[in-house]
Amino acid sequence: MKMQWNKLLSSKRLGSSECLGDGIRTEYYRDYDRIVFSASFRRLARKTQVHPLSFNDHIHNRLTHSIEVSSVGRSLGLAVGLAIKDKLPTDITAVDFASIIQAACVAHDIGNPPFGHAGEYAIRQWFTENENLLNSTLTIAEQNDLKYFEGNAQGLRIVTQLEGHYKDGGLRLTYATLGALIKYPWKSDNKLASEKEKFNVFQSEVDIYSKISEELGLIKLDDERYSRHPLAYLMEAADDICYKILDIEDALELDLLRIEDVIPIFKKLSNAAEFNEINDIGSEFSSRKRIVAYRAKVIDNLIREVVAIFEHNYNDIMEGKFEGDLISKVTGDCQVGIQEIKEMTTDKIFSYRRKIELEVGSYSSIESILSAFITAINQKIDNIATFKSKRILDLMQDDLPSGESTTPYEYYMAITDFVSGMTDNYATFIAKQINGNAK
Question: Rounded CA gap, 51 and 119, in Å?
Fold first, then answer.
């Protein structure tokens, strides 16, 4: 059984029966616009990509990373759409692929907390170490949503429920874009969540996930899990290409690496003729200009590699049988180059002393914030709120649920919404306020 493109590219919107095309923008372009104009996307400008609170304005943050990923995703979508055009219905074009993947890519990190992955780990660790503070009414699955907090699942929650349509339904994106956004199509209590330490669905979005999967005609793999949307593989590949290459560019900017260390790796990842063209004239230019030229050739070549891998594995992808990610299937020099980048980032970038120091500090900030807010919400739940706890919760303003039927789980999720939505700067400020260290 194969998935069908006319279902996979559904332009219907979650939470709405209307198609609001204005004759200028397609439904998928409207998705992109809604994401870009959202407050959650805007806050990515002050969230860490790799290097927290960097003083160097050339270093990537989550917003610049997301924009670059969307650019690569658009190119991948266009190239794949053209490569498989004979397999597509006549009313579906390569531009549709490109615009859906571009929209999914620009939203792929929208749920990431402050301080990058360190912030994600800090949230998980706090809830794991303070499990005794959680209300006894929570199910194991609901506890797992907190103890294994995941930025990807938070992203789905943001675009489907939290961000700002004037009615219910979050951003009301098309089903096609939502499908392409879901990289890990399982819940926190699924065994795959433990094995991969990744998942895309909180308990609060289980029904939404099922609705998306059924609308798109995704293949049901078991009682709880559907196959990935084929375009989700391309969204993931765009992210993989960008962070592998652009982490290196940032490291060069911070003098953690020398260009002489990087050029041999980029040679393996490039088309030989294109690489030599740059290499022959490279000595005339600064290191910054040279690395930009090399980077462009590397990305072009990796796009070609990914397109070929998608084509080669097309039937398995469409039948929900393809396992792993596309970039891991590259062969030859490209495979060697990607492994060398992985080793280099581990040895030279992730062990950078200032990065480690700031990440240690970020743990303290997240711990302080969660301790204060969870204590305050527990007092509210138990009807013993103090003046301090009321003032702490007042910081959440409209983000705090107000209904009498609100469950403890819904309160805890609202707090993780609030904390994970903070920028690096705001989280640092609030932690100082809580600890009485504000200036």
Answer: 12
Determine the residue type at 221: L
CA distances to 60, 64, 87 from 67, rounded to whole Å, are: 10, 5, 30
Give helix 353-381 / helix 424-434 axis angle, nearest 10°. 60
CA 347 to mean position of chain CA atoms: 24
Domains of the chain and any CATH numbers = 5-112+150-216 (1.10.3210.10), 114-148+353-439 (1.10.3550.10), 238-349 (1.10.3410.10)
State both tokens at 143.
């506890």
- Report the C-alpha gap between 294 and 276 in whole angstroms: 10
| Cα 309 to the center of its chain, rounded Å | 23
d(C-alpha 402, C-alpha 398), whole Å: 8
Q: 429, 428, 434, 439: which is closest to 122 by C-alpha? A: 428
pTM: 0.94
The burial class, CB within 10 Å (0-12 / 13-18 / 19+), for 129 is exposed
Residue 349: closest CA among 240, 242, 250: 250
How does DSSP assign 186-210, residue by residue? Answer: SBTTSHHHHHHS--SB-GGGHHHHH
Paired residues of 201 in beta bridges: 187
392-401 long-range Cβ contacts below 8 angstroms, 24+ apart: 392/434, 395/430
Which residues of the chain have a pLDDT value below 70?
17-22, 51-54, 56, 165-169, 280-284, 350-355, 438-439
Tabulate helix, strand, coil % of the chain (nearest 5). 65, 0, 35
* DSSP secondary structure letters along 16-59: B------SSS-HHHHHHHHHHTSHHHHGGGGSBSSSTT-S-TTS
> Residue-wise over 375-387: b if at least 16 C-beta within 10 A, else e?
bbbbbbbeeebee
CA pair distance 238, 101, nearest whole angstrom: 9
Q: Write out the two tokens for 130.
A: 């303070």
Cβ proximity of 92 and 8 under 8 Å: no
Model pLDDT for residues 144-170, shown as the tens digit of each residue: 999 999 999 999 999 999 997 655 668
User: What is the tens place of the pLDDT at every residue in 364-403?
Assistant: 999 999 999 999 999 999 999 999 999 999 999 989 998 8
